[in-house]
Amino acid sequence: MNKPATAEQPSRFPLRELSLCLALAAAILAVYAIMGGAYSTRMLVEAACYAILALGLTIQWGYAGQFNAGVMGFVALGGVCAMTFSVPVNEAFWASELPFELGRVLLYALAAIVLVWGATRLDRLGVPKSLRTLIAVVLALLLYLVVISLLRGVTDEIESRVGFIGGLGLPTGVGWVVGGALAGGVGYFIGHICLGLRSDYLAIATLGIAEIIKAFLKNSDWLTRGTATVSPLPWPTPGPGELGFVMARSIYLVVTALIIAVIFFLLHRAYNAAWGRTIRAIRDNEISSAAMGKDVNRRRLQIFVLGCILMGIGGAALTSFNSIFDPQGYLPLNHTFLVLVMVILGGPGNNLGTIIGAVLVYLIWIMSEPLALYLMQLASSLGEGLGWVDPADMQSRALQARVLVIGLLITLVLRFAPKGLLPEKVKHHG
């Protein structure tokens, strides 16, 4: 019996990838030469954190076609865990009876969840489904009002007596791991509800949930100090006070680069394994995949949760590096739209392209302001002889130039490279 012929695309020299890496390295060296080591190293650390976020989005969108417009929410969840686990313990809180009171209310909340969940299973006892739904909804509303009233009483006491509950004083890395786990857990809950929606409805749902998370963190003064912020946050590495800005930031950069390397290795192996082929098959033709016996919903939920975990880790790393937790600092422009641009520029589904796109876009985002300010000052000096008057808000205008530059960049990419600088590599067999 003759074996079926299999034709694979011959391997090629990665000239495009090498050229992009060299061009990006040249741009980074130019920034170092112009802005100095401390500023440039800080920029690279933040770009590395954004690369982790972009990898989380590219596996959701590039691997599985899931458009997550709520990246900001998962970044905030990672940030609050980094803060909660690393900030020193608030002795005044733990020395009072408030931990017991808060724990009691949380147990009531858990019992309420169990009761509502049990009400949703009443149809198994012969209760009509319409009546079951009505009972579950009414019970959920009543228990919510009871629990929220009890919680408000305890949290008011916490805010008035001790400020906020404080942290746990644990190593920063613990907060990063828990941040990824919490983001994954929330993603699991969201996925069960939203992954059955169409892609545009999924985007709207995740966007709304991200705003809910931000509003909760912003208004929970007992947990996060709200708009008062929490700072300074400790680093997982020696800080600038011990080693100086350049050396401390360089070590932090090494840590984030190692995280990216591990994620890249694992994703590369998974992408080329049977799991990755199944995910891409579901993305390309969900009906055919289901007909072949693939559990479509379970696979889509897996990839969504995995992407959320990476976003939580990236958000925790970014918050720790900035050394401040500010719920108002999480913005859709900075923590959702910018990550989306990184994935579009690099190439959805291409891990290397996503990393290159993240660093390149963040470099452009950061350098747009000083470059625009320099051009404005140059135009102002040239126009002095013509009687030009400098605008009073030149600095803020230069800051807004980054939005114009990013908008122009994404327009050019969508026009001339709609699949990104490094499109997803698809091997053809047959």
UniProtKB/TrEMBL annotation:
CDD domains documented for this protein: TM_PBP1_LivM_like
Any one GO CC term of the record: plasma membrane
Keywords (A to Z) from UniProt: Cell membrane, Membrane, Transmembrane, Transmembrane helix
Domain of life: Bacteria
Record localization: Cell inner membrane
Key word Nucleus present: no
Membrane topology: Multi-pass membrane protein
Transmembrane residue ranges: 43-64, 71-90, 102-119, 131-151, 163-189, 243-267, 303-325, 337-364, 401-417
Pfam families for this protein: BPD_transp_2
PANTHER family, sorted: HIGH-AFFINITY BRANCHED-CHAIN AMINO ACID TRANSPORT PROTEIN BRAE, HIGH-AFFINITY BRANCHED-CHAIN AMINO ACID TRANSPORT SYSTEM PERMEASE
Protein's name according to its UniProt entry: Branched-chain amino acid ABC transporter permease
Biological source species: Bisbaumannia pacifica
Record lineage: Bacteria, Pseudomonadati, Pseudomonadota, Gammaproteobacteria, Oceanospirillales
